[in-house]
Amino acid sequence: MLTHDIYCTNQSLEGLSENEMKKACIRLRSCDNGDYKVQNNLIRDLNIQEISDFELANFESRFLELGYKKFDTTKRDFHYSKDGMNSRFEILRVF
Q1: 4-51 residue pLDDT tens
Q2: pLDDT value for 29
Q3: How far is C-alpha 64 from the geometric centre of its chain's CA atoms?
Q4: Which residue, among 38, 34, 58, has the nearest Cα to 49 in the 3D structure?
Q5: DSSP string of 31-64?
Q6: Where does the pLDDT of residue 88 fall: very low under 50, low under 70, confident under 90, or very high at 90 and above?
Q7: What's the pTM value of the predicted model, to 2 decimals?
Q8: Between these two residues, 84 and 52, which has the higher pLDDT value?
Q9: What's the angle, vertex CA 25, arms to CA 50 and CA 3, rounded to 5?
């Protein structure tokens, strides 16, 4: 699975752990080049749950105009298991 995450925040992330950073940001997530799902919506009046690739540039521009910073990550997940295992393990390739 290919995952592209875009994080937007108007807060300082200095000194925060990775988990704290994620909680301080609005996340847009696209899996396998699909539409972006809005996750961790920190803006009450933002009634958007999904953004198409076509709408993304306009959405990002509006956030940058409001003083938000943006960073993104792209990763590919590989899931493996063996017979008799109750769970799987995951290897991530981050681009």
Answers
A1: 999 999 999 999 998 898 889 999 999 999 999 998 888 777 788 899
A2: 94
A3: 16
A4: 38
A5: ETT-PEEEES---TT----EE-HHHHHHHHHHHH
A6: confident
A7: 0.81
A8: 52
A9: 55
Counting every residue written for the chain, the total comes to 95
User: Residue 51: which of 9, 8, 11 has the closest Cα?
Assistant: 8
List the structure tokens of 87. Answer: 């769970």
Distance CA 63, CA 42 (A): 13
Of 34, 22, 35, the residue nearest 71 (C-alpha): 22
Query: Which has the closest alpha carbon to 3: 87, 89, 78?
Result: 78
Structure tokens at 88: 């799987």
